[in-house]
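queue> pop job 88
queue> type: inverse folding (structure -> sequence)
queue> payload:
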């Protein structure tokens, strides 16, 4: 079974992949952000332009396709759905466990392009910086500087989710005639519940704070 959805970001969407040294396209794009880099709070990022090791440490960028256009990877949607499964309470409501969902669903295409007013977005809209504070572990309380490629709210994307008709099952008959059969209606209801929670969980870096979307 298959459901196709179109999403629209209601918050800015940030890249979560580390900058790779030697990526000249990203460096050229970053250097084009002249006005923004002049602001004092971007000083660390501007200083890192000549130091690719430092850029790798502080800059998160978008995954891209073969044309170097920013994309959402289907693995990102799958990961997002794993968090959404817990929020949707699929085991309590539909008897679909975390592991069953993980192994049963598949998102496509592999690289999902982003669009604005029907045109494919060719590069990031902006770069933003934050001071991130560690909340757990031995370094709890420590802060560090991070920069992110971003795309403004309003960008749209379309993806498909395939799932088995027996994601949920039901019992029919009794006695010798008793059998477990696919419950397609409940399977679809379960999938829609997870998809709804995915939209509020969000995609990309800082996805619990940014990257939420709605279906259109």
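queue> result:
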């Amino acid at each position: 079974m298959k459901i196709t959805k179109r999403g629209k970001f209601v918050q800015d969407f940030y890249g979560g992949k580390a900058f790779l040294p030697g990526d000249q396209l990203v460096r050229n794009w970053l250097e084009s952000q002249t006005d923004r880099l002049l602001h004092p709070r971007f000083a660390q990022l501007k200083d890192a332009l000549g130091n690719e090791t430092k850029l790798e440490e502080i800059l998160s960028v978008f995954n891209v396709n073969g044309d170097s256009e920013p994309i959402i990877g289907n693995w990102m949607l799958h990961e997002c759905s794993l968090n959404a499964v817990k929020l949707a309470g699929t085991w309590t409501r539909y008897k679909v466990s975390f592991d069953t969902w993980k192994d049963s669903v598949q998102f496509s295409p592999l690289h999902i392009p982003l669009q604005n007013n029907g045109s494919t977005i060719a590069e990031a809209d902006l770069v933003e910086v934050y001071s991130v504070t560690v909340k757990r572990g031995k370094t709890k309380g420590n802060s560090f500087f991070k920069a992110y490629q971003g795309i403004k709210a309003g960008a749209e994307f379309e993806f498909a989710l395939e799932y088995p008709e027996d994601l949920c099952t039901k019992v029919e008959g009794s006695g010798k005639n008793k059998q477990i059969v696919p419950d397609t209606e409940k399977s679809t209801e379960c999938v829609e519940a997870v998809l709804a929670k995915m939209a509020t969980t969000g995609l990309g870096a800082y996805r619990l704070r940014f990257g939420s979307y709605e279906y259109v």
